[in-house]
Amino acid sequence: MAAVGTWLDIGPTTQIEAGTARTLPVEGGEEIAVFHTMRGEFYALVNKCPHKAGPLSQGIVHGDTVSCPLHNWRISLRTGEAQGEDKGCTPTIPLKLDGGRIFLLREAVIAPAHAAAKSATTPARAA
Ligand code: FES
């Protein structure tokens, strides 16, 4: 089911190289990391590891997970959940692509902990 709400245009898909992430500062909210995987999928998460708040945007992307740069926990880009033995979850932000541009659900950007904490995101692919 598609999320209902207002979508924020955060720029073209070409601004994020495959296998990397860009950060999006949010006034009055949590910084967001937008990832572009080698498979051409895009995901957005709060830029904080559930372990000790490491900046996930600086981690290495493997498939649909990212390794935290601080202590190497692997975090699912789809669900925000820590993988393997590790426990914890980073809020995800609903994301869609349209016309080569990236859109984030405004309500989740402003209050990600409430709006998107439990929503697993579906991958958005560049056309
Ligand atoms: S802060 Fe991310 S693994 Fe420790």
Protein model, in words:
The chain has helices at 106-110, 112-115, and strands spanning 7-12, 20-24, 32-36, 41-46, 60-62, 65-67, 74-76, 92-93, 95-98, 101-105, 124-125. The chain has 127 residues and is mainly beta. The chain has a single domain (19-121), classed as Rieske Iron-sulfur Protein. The chain starts with 6 loop residues before the first strand and ends with a strand. It binds FE2/S2 (inorganic) cluster. FE2/S2 (inorganic) cluster is lined by residues 49, 51-52, 54, 68, 70-71, 73. FE2/S2 (inorganic) cluster (FES) is lined by residues 49, 51-52, 54, 68, 70-71, 73.
Main attributes of the structure:
127 residues, mainly beta, Rieske Iron-sulfur Protein, five-stranded antiparallel sheet, three-stranded antiparallel sheet, globular, binds FE2/S2 (inorganic) cluster, metal ion binding, oxidoreductase, Rieske_2Fe-2S_sf, 2Fe-2S, Nitrite reductase small subunit NirD
Give a topology summary.
Elements: E1 7-12, E2 20-24, E3 32-36, E4 41-46, E5 60-62, E6 65-67, E7 74-76, E8 92-93, E9 95-98, E10 101-105, H1 106-110, H2 112-115, E11 124-125
Antiparallel strand pairs: 1-10, 2-3, 3-4, 4-8, 4-11, 5-6, 6-7, 9-10
Bound molecules: FE2/S2 (inorganic) cluster.
Residues 49, 51-52, 54, 68, 70-71, 73 line the site of FE2/S2 (inorganic) cluster.
